[in-house]
Each structure stands twice: as C-alpha cells, then as structure tokens.
Amino acid sequence: MKKILVASTALVAVAFAGQANASEKIKLSVGGYMEQWAGFSDEDGAGLEGEGRPNAFQSDTEIHFKGSTTLDNGIEVGATVELEGETSGDQIDEQYLYVNGGFGQVKLGKDDSAADDMGITAPAVGPVGVNDGDMSNWADAYLIDTVRSSGDQNRLTYYTPSFGGFRAGVSYADDSNRNGADGYDNQSGSGDNIVSAGVEYLGDFDGWSLGLSATGEESGEGAWYGAGVNVGFGNFTVGGSYGHTEDDYGLNLEDDGSNGQDLDAFDVGVSYAMDAAAVSATYGYEDFGTGEIQAVDLGLAYTLGAGVAWKSSVFWFDQENDGEADNDGYGVVTGIRLDF
C-alpha cells in the first residue's frame, strides 16, 4: 500500500512539474442545499402503539464552498469544504482537494470512499427512501443499507478516466476509528487500513440507458461488497442493488471482536419522470442477524422552480426482532428542498 501511495504522489508531482505560475488564484463560490420536512408516523411495536414519534419536523442543511483553477497544462486543481448547518458533532462534513487531468482524478482529504461514491441503488425520489435513507429518523426501524461504507474519512482516492463508459476507483484510509468530531489529525485511532474500491459502467444508447456498479471495502474489521444496476427506457428507470457484510466487519461487536452474523440486504424499485414531476416505488429488505426488516417507500418529487423542489414520501415497514418485541408501522413526510 505504501508503494501505491508513493506512486500516486509521484504521478501528481510529475503533472505539476515545470508549470509556470500563470493560473488564477482559486476563488471559492458558495452553494449547498436546505431540506425542511414535516411528517408523522404510527408504530405498533416496542411499546410505541398509538404514540407515534415526537419528531414531527426534520431538517438538513449544508453550505458548500467550492473553487478551482486550471494550470497552463490544462490540469484542474480545486477544493471543496462542506459545512453542516446543524450538528452536535463535527461541524465540517467533508473537506478535500482534487486534481483533474488526462490521468483521471486524485482526491485527498476528508471524503466518502470510492465504493460509496460509485455504488448504484434502486431509483427513489422521495425524502425518506428504504436504502440508507431517513426512515430511522421518523420511526424506530433498522436502517437498510446495501452500500455500507466507512463514511467520511481522511483518505486518498483515485478515479481512472472513463473508457467507453467504464470507470474504476480506489480509496485508502489509514485508520478506521477516526470518523468523529475528535478523531481527525491525531494519533488515537486503531491504525487499521481501509481499502475501498469500485467499478462502474454508465452508458446511453438509442432510447435507453444502463448503469452498473460493483463495490466493496476491506479493513481490519472485515469486509463488505455489493452490486447495483439501473436501466432507463423512455421516462422509466428500474433497478436495484444487493449488499453483503461479513460477520467480522465490526458492527455490534462481541467480546471476541466479531458480531457472529452476516448481513444481507437488497432493494428494487421503479421511477417515472414526467416534465417537472417524478414518482417512484421502492422496496427494501435486510436480514441483520438478530432479525429482519422489509420496507416500502412511495415517493413524489415536483420541481417548482430553479433549485426548488417539493418532495413527499409515504412509507411502511415491518421489522421482526429475535427475542425482542417486533415493530411495524407507516408514515407520511412532505417538505421542500432548496439547492443553491
């Protein structure tokens, strides 16, 4: 792995060598998004019957600062800083620099992995979703996830150029325990290497499109892997994904360092776009070792104007827990997303 890091560093250094200092200084632009949601849920298990959830309102806001410059040889160098609008932990969501050129793209900083970026899942347009979405914000439900990445880490990522629609990526982070408010730029982590990789194919043909992905991640705590596919034809998109997490990946660890159970998840869905509106229906399932859950989300998205979208979800879930109270319920969520 150290040889790979040295080679990557040398590649970037050669790209910069001999350049005149004629490019413009980077100026950051401001962007981001704001989501404000209102909704309710009703649950029948775990002592929640008739009570629902008290959180009738949810929000998510990020302010993004981005900028780049192009060197005399055509290589682009840029930076991204994403500021959380509300958080009790790390105020910075992601921050990294990137270098784009004929060799592909190199990213260095706190960012998602290549596996996370390249993973394809079933189409869904609503604010809740069934796969790594917000259902657990509205109900006491296990979060289905077919792309179970390590999240934002200080890491190095490389993406190849696209060759006939094919692209590959690989990420390396040096510590699986530095993913929190106090964990960056210190020496208190475990030192476990995290290697994430992905391969994707994106193609547009006469009247239809195809997206394929194969992703995975390995660390000192085990591994996960998965695949996804989306097919578009006319105004329809259909697709799905599958993810498998090994029993030693580090979730719910026992005293012996493993959780003793494999995790298997999948989702399938269809969406239909018509002018400013889009609708979707998505189903998800996961066997999480101590139980299983299935969920359905019906989503609606309507573009009201440039950067303004009204979105709604109607969702239902049924969770069975081994040796514990089962839970099932439904909910309705609606609200506005602003992109700026």
From TrEMBL:
Domain Porin: 7-318
Molecular function GO labels: porin activity
Swiss-Prot/TrEMBL keywords: Signal
InterPro entries given in the database record: Gram_neg_porin_domain (IPR033900), Porin_dom_sf (IPR023614)
GO cellular component, one term: membrane
The protein's name in its UniProt record: Porin
SUPFAM superfamilies, alphabetized: Porins
Signal peptide bounds: 1-22
Top-level taxon: Bacteria
Organism from which the protein derives: Thalassospira xianhensis MCCC 1A02616
